[in-house]
Amino acid sequence: MKLPTRLAALAAAALVVAACAPQTSDNSSSDTDDKTGTLRVWLFQEVGNKPKEQVVDSAVAAFEKAHKGAKVDVEYIPVDTRAQRVKAAFNDPKSAPDVMEYGNTDTAGYVQDGGLLDVTEDFGDWSEAKATDPTAKQSVTVDGKLYGAPFYVGVRALYYRTDVFEELGLHVPKTMAELATTARKIRAAKPELYGLVVGGAYTYGAMPFVWANGGELATGKSGSYASGIDSAAARKGITAYTSLFSDDNCPAAKCAGMGGNDTITAFAAGKAGMAIGGDFSHTAVEAGKVKGEYAVVPLPGVTSGSIAPAFAGGNNIGVLKSTSHRTLAVQLMEALASKKTQASLFDAMGFLPTFTDVRDQAAAKEPFVKPFVQTLTAGTKFVPASPAWSQIDSSLVLPTMFQEVVSGKKDVAAASAEAAKKMDAAFGSVG
Amino acid sequence: MTVTDTAVVEKRTPPSTPPVRRRRSRAGRTPWLYLAPALVVLAALLAYPVYQLGLISLFRYTQAQVSGGEPTAFRGFGNYADVFSDDQFWQVLASTVVFAAACVVSTLAVGCALAVLLTRVRAVPRLALMLAAMGAWATPAVTGSTVWLFLFDPDFGPVNRLLGLGDHSWTYGRLSAFFLVLLEVVWCSFPFVMVTVYAGIRSVPSEVLEAAALDGASQWRIWRSVLAPMLRPILVVVTIQSVIWDFKVFTQIYVMTNGGGIAGQNLVLNVYAYQQAFASSQYGLGSAIGVVMLLILLAVTLVYLRLLRRQGEEL
Questions:
Q1: Which terminal CB of chain A, N or C, has fewer other CB atoms within 10 Å?
Q2: CB of B61 within 8 Å of any CB in chain A?
């Protein structure tokens, strides 16, 4: 008699708790599909945004001309606070844009949040889509469905000082092992320089070493990933990268805490013989001391002549689920990510196009991007298309692993095993 | 005789009791009436958020749930279990406690010493010290942290040049990084202690201090036996404030050790909660850590007040 009463009380308590569950917003897709009205667009505010605005303005003008009664309102949002803006947009569909630019590592997370519209069919019908680079396409794909159009890509390659190499009679390294010996030679001859400047918190500079050795971040398919960071091949890559943090190249005391930007700053200021930087780092390096005294080649792989797989960063353009102009918004997305817009955007901002044919034309026009296009052509890698990635990224699982090894707190086996455990927990928690 | 006596007593007491009772019951209600506006504001701004915090900590509540991509799910104490089963949480908790304690002790020592100094110097140096302290107090934490970091920068910082340390990195070692942050925390929080304690000292009757001086007490003795006991209520408030501030330190660690130091060696609870939970929108987990922090701080404050009460001090 007593037990049932207690159970009933428990059930009642559970009901009360369930009744006051925290707030959620209704973000189901809108049924309306207006053919006229104002479309709101959010694009990222870049450093030196003017040229981007001009390209976008002309694309928008053409779009408005082709679609009578449609008006486009473009807003540039700061990159630093984009996460908050996008979360707010998902929470309050009324203030959300119809079309937005987003970083490609965020794709899976935004899809899980229920914010992005599935455009698989539209993308299939789009005539220009056939020339899309497969890795770029992978970066808008979750569970076999497409959630946007690739806007531009960014990859990293090896920057080196031509004057230093000439003075010391060095050759451009052909393999990863040669890269390390060349770096040490530079440091030995010029102790005021880092040989190859590396950073303990520079995940995307470190991953090519893991990938070149045959390691993977994670294996598996959509939904069920398992970490691969503790495999033998991955450990070999981690060892190769972390062994660069030594007094004869880049002392751990100074380099362990560095991130990607710090390494580029050091290189641009003339404090390093080599650095791993992106096509997007070009402006920063040009503005530095080393202008005119450096060149770029693809980061060498393990075997001579091979190229280490790079991380394919970049941004996409997507349509929000809450849009009330579905057809128009998808067309606007295609207009903004079209071959024409991407080609002018490359001229204006140097962003690498996601269409292979447009990219080849760009490389022919601007020799600087050649090593980056070569790197892209050789094959790039992408982060696991799982919403867990944003969790793994923001809880610094990989930087912690590299820093533990670099600072001697743990050996490669222990650090990578722990990182794998944390990654698996994250993959498991998102189901 | 006795009968009339008691009758007299009885006759006298009844009229006198009701007014007392009435006054008492009115006294019971009136303070609440006066407190009501403050209580309403407190309830809205404090109790409700704490209630929400507790509520969210029982759910699986991430961005997907907030924006309606997935339904909310009740997890009971699942979030707490996740937190407590993480070894790193316990390490971070331990270093937070030790670090906060070191910060509180250093802040109080520096603040009180300078407050005493303020009463001993002339107007001009006093003004200079006050202005310097106000400057430190008014500096935003991010700016202060960045400037301190620059002062100790291995390549460009003046401190290394002054001490002849070459390119020694202060943020590489765990203890030296914590020490650097401690300096910044003390620098930006001692003015509050100094100004409050200084105001307290000024309100101590000068006869008392004079008497102590005439008795030949040293400065330290005056502080220990006269000022400290008299300033006790002020010191209590300042200590509790400092404990709460230093336990919750975020900006200094986040900026100066680049989000928790090499391999997370300089993490404190707040930064840990941010990285593990809020940065990746796991609000349920973050709320659970928040509740744990709240309980720890409440416990510390209550135990401290209790100790004082036992020593016979009314606050």
A1: N
A2: yes
Pure H helices in chain B: 2-42, 48-56, 63-66, 78-84, 87-120, 123-138, 141-151, 158-163, 174-202, 206-214, 219-222, 228-230, 232-247, 251-256, 269-273, 283-310
- pLDDT of res. B197: 94
Interface size between A and B, measured as CB pairs under 8 A: 110
Tell me what pLDDT residue A21 has: 67
Searching chain A, which residue's CA lies closest to the CA of residue B52? A22
Task: Verify that B44 and B86 share a domain, yes or no.
Answer: no
Average pLDDT estimate for B45-73:
85
CB-CB under 8 Å, A406 with B280:
no
Supply B313's token pair: 């001090």
Q: Which residues in A have their CB inside 8 Å of a CB on B?
A: 14, 17-18, 20-28, 87, 90-91, 109, 112-115, 200-201, 252-254, 256-257, 259, 387, 390-391, 393-396, 399-400, 403-404, 406-407, 409
Of the pLDDT bands very low, low, confident and very high (cuts 50, 70, 90), residue B16 is very low
Asked whether residue B140 falls in the same domain as residue B282, the answer is: yes
Substitution target from B265, B280, B287 for chain A, most A beta carbons within 10 A: B280
Per the CB < 8 A criterion, the answer to whether B250 and B270 are in contact is: yes
User: What residues of chain A lie within 8 A of the CB of B280, using their CB?
Assistant: 390-391, 393-395
Taking residues A225-246, report their average pLDDT: 95
Residue A299 banded pLDDT, cuts 50, 70, 90: very high
Each residue's pLDDT tens digit, A3-37: 455 545 544 444 444 446 677 766 556 667 888 88
Confidence of residue B313 (pLDDT cuts 50, 70, 90): low
Question: Mean pLDDT over residues A332-348, rounded?
Answer: 93
Residue B71 lies in a domain: no
Same structural domain, B121 and B162: yes
Mutate to test the interface with B, among A90, A94, A321 (most CBs of B within 10 A): A90
Flag whether residue B214 sits within 8 Å of chain A, measured between CB atoms.
no
Three-state secondary structure call for residue B148: helix
Query: Which are the contacts of B177, defined by CB distance < 8 A and separation ≥ 6?
Result: B170, B171, B256, B257, B261, B262, B265, B266
Helices (H), B121-140: 123-138
Based on the domain organization, do B84 and B37 belong to the same domain?
A: no
Domain CATH number, residue B140: 1.10.3720.10
Give the mutation candidate from A16, A24, A112 for the B interface (greatest B CB count, under 10 A): A24
Is the same domain home to B212 and B286? yes
Please list every residue in chain B whose beta carbon sits closer than 8 Å to the beta carbon of residue A113. Answer: 63-64, 66-67, 69
Domain count, chain B: 2
Instruction: Give residue A404's pLDDT.
Output: 94
> Residue B74 domain-assigned?
no
**Whole-prediction pTM value?**
0.81
Domains of chain A with CATH codes: 37-154+312-381 (3.40.190.10), 156-311+386-429 (3.40.190.10)
- Mean pLDDT score, A419-428: 91
Which of A151, A100, A118 is closest to A313 using CA atoms? A151
Indicate if B133 and B278 belong to the same structural domain: yes
- Cα–Cα distance for residue pair A403/A399, rounded to 1 Å: 6
Q: Are residues B239 and B276 in the same domain?
A: yes
Confidence (pLDDT) at B4: 43
Contacts of B97 (CB under 8 A, 6+ apart): B247
Whether the CB of B48 is below 8 Å from some CB of chain A: the reply is no
- Partner-chain contact A87 B281, CB within 8 Å: yes
Which domain range does residue B284 map to? 80-310
